[in-house]
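STRUCTURE:
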């Protein structure tokens, strides 16, 4: 296995075409095909499915691609630092479900280390994409929750993806709404009392399974349900339609403002919020510092 072969795999995956990849790599297409064939024989798996509609990664190839990107990127950093003598920035990336506290922890990390020496990325996204981002080395850490309902399915997916989940804290279920909502003054709310108000849920796209829902009680038959793609839209719907969503109860007024509140839901449900990382890979210094910031929110529960 060579670095050149890893670059070939990346180029083919990005272009979905042997001919286009060969053109961008400035090599002959037969030479590229032979190099990939030699690599597949060496590692004992098929990386691509080939058809008249193009070239697509196999499931094994998709996993291999994540490692290939990581190796090539690390080589580029070494090359920049020691061959080209460039002062390349250290990188940190995190993917998360739509948690304001996870964004707040990221903000504090950036403030602490600055952007002169570091390059940061935060991906607030769908549940399945959080898993895929960590699996494919797009992010070092993924922040999400598990509970009794989704634990078996997600744990199996974590294991198949070469990931491990570590719990950070447990919390009850809260109803998140704007302070002008008719029920906002309650100390506790039963789910039945919310029937006349729209429940707001994050859209999960092609992986719209109950197990990937970002809100607990995803199998409950809500009388009114609205799905949205981003947190800003949900906040607007809370105000415009007296909507609500179910959350951890952690409020970050410095980011979302002071117009919203969290009221305890009458439920025994517990959610465990934690982080994903590649199995067997140690956390970077920035990764550990980020988790230290997330853990500070335990005091607010």
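SEQUENCE:
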């Amino acid at each position: 296995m060579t670095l050149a072969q890893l670059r070939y795999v990346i180029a083919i995956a990005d272009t979905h075409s042997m001919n286009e990849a060969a053109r961008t790599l400035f090599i002959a297409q037969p030479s590229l095909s032979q190099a990939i064939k030699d690599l597949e024989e060496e590692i004992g798996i098929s990386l691509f499915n080939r058809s008249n509609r193009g070239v697509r990664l196999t499931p094994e190839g998709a996993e291999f691609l994540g490692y290939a990107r990581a190796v090539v990127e690390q080589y580029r950093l070494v090359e920049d630092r020691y061959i080209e003598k460039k002062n390349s920035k250290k990188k940190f990336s995190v993917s998360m479900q739509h948690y304001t506290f996870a964004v707040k922890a990221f903000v504090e990390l950036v403030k602490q280390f600055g952007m002169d020496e570091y390059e940061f990325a935060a991906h607030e996204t769908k549940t399945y994409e959080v898993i895929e981002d960590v699996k494919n080395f797009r992010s070092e850490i993924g922040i999400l929750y598990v509970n009794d309902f989704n634990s078996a399915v997600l744990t199996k997916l974590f294991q198949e993806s070469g990931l491990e989940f570590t719990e950070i804290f447990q919390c009850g279920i809260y109803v998140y709404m704007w302070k002008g909502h008719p029920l906002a003054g309650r100390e506790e709310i039963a789910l039945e009392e919310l029937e006349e108000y729209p429940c707001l849920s994050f859209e999960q796209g092609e992986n719209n399974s109950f197990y990937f829902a970002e809100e607990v009680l995803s199998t409950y038959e809500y009388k009114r349900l609205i799905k949205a793609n981003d947190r800003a839209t949900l906040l607007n719907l809370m105000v415009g339609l007296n909507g609500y969503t179910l959350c951890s109860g952690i409020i970050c007024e410095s980011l979302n403002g002071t117009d919203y509140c969290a009221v305890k839901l009458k439920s025994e449900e517990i959610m465990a919020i934690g982080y994903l990382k590649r199995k067997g890979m140690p956390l970077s210094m920035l990764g550990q510092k980020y988790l230290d910031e997330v853990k500070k929110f335990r005091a607010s529960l």
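REMARK: The chain has a mean pLDDT of 91.
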